């Protein structure tokens, strides 16, 4: 059993919850000209940081895999490519400096929706059944 993959697998659900909450909060605040509330900012930043953490866990797992098997599967390459893009998209609002409150909300909303779609596709690229699976648990 690969403990890193089990953590990676569980963290996916935490990420889905944070991204859905971020989308909901941002959509609700979109029409106001005020800066995002603290709750929304913390939810979005947590989502983006968890995505980054997932990248490091995934890469650490790939290293462990390579040590054991010496090569990667096509699905692993596809999953990694899609998820690197998803993590980059999730971090766009943090990378763009000096956004106005309205621009920040719009950017964060589009980023969270796009990243969530990519996450759904990236897990499905391993086989859709992996959405019903936590490595080593069920
Ligand atoms: C660049 C970043 C990532 C890398 C390198 C990576 C790597 C991997 C690898 C190597 C596997 C095992 C595939 C196999 O051997 O069948 C895997 C599985 C998985 N990954 Fe990632 N991953 C990344 C990002 C993500 C993200 C952002 C999510 C979700 C938010 C995610 C969710 C999953 C899930 C759900 C599985 C299946 C686990 C299971 O079956 O229990 N990964 N990942």
In short:
Helices cover 75% and strands 0% of the residues.
Could you explain how this protein is built, in words?
It is built from five helices and no strands. By secondary structure, it is mostly helical. It has one domain. The relative contact order is 0.18. The protein binds protoporphyrin IX containing FE (HEM). The site of protoporphyrin IX containing FE (HEM) has 28 residues, from helix 1, helix 2, helix 3 and helix 5.
Question: Which features characterize this protein?
Answer:
single chain, 138 residues, 0% strand, elongated, binds protoporphyrin IX containing FE
Global shape? elongated
What's the number of extended β-strand segments? 0
Distance from first to last alpha carbon: 12 Å
Strand content: under 5%
Q: What is the total number of structural domains?
A: 1
Radius of gyration: 16 Å
Low-confidence sequence ranges = none
Q: Could you say which small molecules are bound to this protein? A: protoporphyrin IX containing FE
Mind sketching the topology for me?
Elements: H1 3-29, H2 38-69, H3 74-90, H4 92-95, H5 101-124
Helix pairs in contact: 1-2, 1-5, 2-3, 3-5
The chain binds protoporphyrin IX containing FE.
């Amino acid at each position: 059993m690969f403990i890193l993959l089990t953590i990676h697998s569980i963290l996916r659900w935490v990420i889905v919850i944070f991204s859905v909450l971020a989308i909901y909060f941002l959509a609700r605040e979109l029409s106001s000209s005020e800066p995002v509330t603290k709750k929304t900012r913390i939810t979005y930043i947590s989502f983006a940081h968890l995505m980054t953490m997932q990248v490091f866990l995934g890469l650490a797992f790939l290293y462990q895999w390579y040590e054991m098997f010496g090569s990667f599967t096509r699905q692993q390459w596809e999953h990694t490519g899609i998820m690197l893009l998803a993590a980059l998209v999730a971090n766009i609002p943090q990378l763009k400096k000096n956004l106005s409150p309205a621009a920040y909300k719009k950017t964060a909303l589009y980023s969270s929706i796009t990243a969530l779609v990519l996450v759904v596709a990236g897990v499905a690229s391993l086989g859709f059944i992996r959405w019903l699976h936590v490595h080593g648990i069920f």
